[in-house]
Amino acid sequence: MTRSNINDFIVIIRGLAVKCYLCSWSPNDQNNQTDSCTEENFNPNAVYSVECSHGCEAFFQWDSNGVLEHSRRNCMQNGVEERNSCVNETKPAWTMYRCTCDTDFCNTAAARHPSTVFYAFVIVIFWRVITI
């Protein structure tokens, strides 16, 4: 690969990154008592945003009594197979709810969002219709 091709490749990769909200809150965190991350108090103007190469996630965890232990919005972890979906998992000690998505700022709420694959499909179909 030439230096020019490498730079083109880097631009393409950067173009695939999505912007995600970044915040975390736990009632047990003595250093962070300002809640702008839970569903009830989420404020997009009060949290950071970052570019993520694998998509975004919103994650919430409650203890066995239904008390919120942790809330976070972040980049989706590498290797997560389920994209643009929500997963609810209950164990004896906790309940976890995680939604993943792959469009800019899609982790505003714990809800499913249309994927970029869907949008690409719509664009291809539209392009074929207008060029026939």
Structure report:
The longest helix is centred in the C-terminal third of the chain and has 16 residues, at 116-131. This protein has 2 helices and 6 strands, in the order αββββββα. The protein is globular and about 60 Å long. It is α+β, with helices and mostly antiparallel strands. The protein is 23% helix and 33% strand. The protein has a 6-stranded antiparallel sheet with strand order 2-1-4-3-6-5, with no helix packed on it.
Mean pLDDT across the residues is: 78
Give the percentage of residues in beta strands: 25-35%
Low-confidence stretches: 2-12, 111-127
Q: Could you estimate the helical fraction of the residues in percent?
A: 10-25%
Using only CA atoms, what is the Rg?
18 Å
Count of DSSP H/I helices: 2
Terminal CA distance: 37 Å
SSE series: HEEEEEEH
Coarse shape: globular
- Helix and strand composition category: alpha+beta
Strand order across the largest sheet: 2-1-4-3-6-5
Biggest sheet, in brief? 6 strands, antiparallel
Q: Using DSSP, what is the number of strands?
A: 6
